[in-house]
């Protein structure tokens, strides 16, 4: 075995840069990736009814590939498996309300089972991503070549009046 290297899951090598001069940078852990996502989309910015954050995943697992998607449906989870993703980040939550089962006989339970069996974490950024500046509304407006003129319901904690608590904003074409 190489000095400073340890075998990771799926046969990957993790190099500790402090032990081996010139080695590869260490692979980030899920907890580190989530911390970075939380700086972009803080959970406290989510609406009280929303379900954001990490749904599944070990904070110590290594993350080398991330898939971003709108919805955590089985087709997307299967794609994450095929791509060898370690983390799936979705906009919409898998569970918006509480659940009584994660049995694989149900759609959402099957999603959870597939994620766990394949060591894929799931993290959700929903209304906390909507209210970011720039956020989901800005990206959508840009993709549609629209100009955002202001939020429908301004966030009272935003002194510049740019953030909106809702996913939509009043738009005009350029």
Q: How many beta-strand elements?
A: 8
- Terminal CA distance reads 60 Å
Computed over alpha carbons, the radius of gyration is: 19 Å
Multimer state: single chain
- Indicate the structural class: alpha/beta
β-strand amount: 15-25%
Helix share bin: 25-40%
Number of helices: 5
CATH-defined architecture of the largest domain: 3-Layer(aba) Sandwich
Could you tell me the mean pLDDT?
81
Tell me, what is the CATH class of the largest domain? Alpha Beta
What do you see in this structure?
The structure is a single chain. With 174 residues, this protein is α/β, with parallel strands linked by helices. The chain has 2 domains: 30-127, Udp-n-acetylmuramoylalanyl-d-glutamate--2,6- Diaminopimelate Ligase, Chain: A, domain 1 (3-Layer(aba) Sandwich), CATH 3.40.1390; 131-173, no CATH class. Helices cover 25% and strands 16% of the residues. It is built from 5 helices and 8 strands, in the order E-E-H-E-E-H-E-H-E-H-H-E-E. The strands form 3 sheets. Strands 3-6-5-4 form a 4-stranded mixed β-sheet. Helix 2 links the parallel strand 4 and strand 5 (87-90). The longest helix is centred in the N-terminal third of the chain and has 11 residues, at 30-40.
């Amino acid at each position: 075995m190489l000095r400073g290297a340890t075998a990771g899951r799926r046969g990957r090598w993790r190099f500790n840069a402090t032990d081996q001069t010139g080695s590869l940078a260490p692979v980030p852990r899920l907890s580190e990736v989530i911390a970075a996502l939380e700086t972009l989309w803080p959970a406290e910015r989510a609406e009280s009814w929303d379900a954001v954050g990490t749904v599944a995943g070990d904070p110590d697992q290594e993350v080398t590939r991330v898939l971003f998607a709108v919805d955590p449906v089985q087709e997307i989870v299967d794609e994450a498996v095929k791509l060898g993703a370690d983390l799936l980040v979705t906009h919409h939550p898998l569970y918006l309300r509480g659940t009584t089962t994660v049995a694989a006989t149900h759609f959402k339970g099957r999603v959870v089972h597939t994620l766990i069996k394949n060591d894929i974490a799931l993290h959700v950024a929903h209304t906390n991503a909507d209210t970011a500046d720039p956020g989901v509304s800005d990206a959508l407006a840009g993709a549609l070549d629209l100009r955002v003129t202001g939020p429908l319901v301004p966030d009272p904690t935003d002194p510049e009046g740019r953030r909106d608590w809702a996913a939509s904003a009043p738009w005009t074409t350029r």
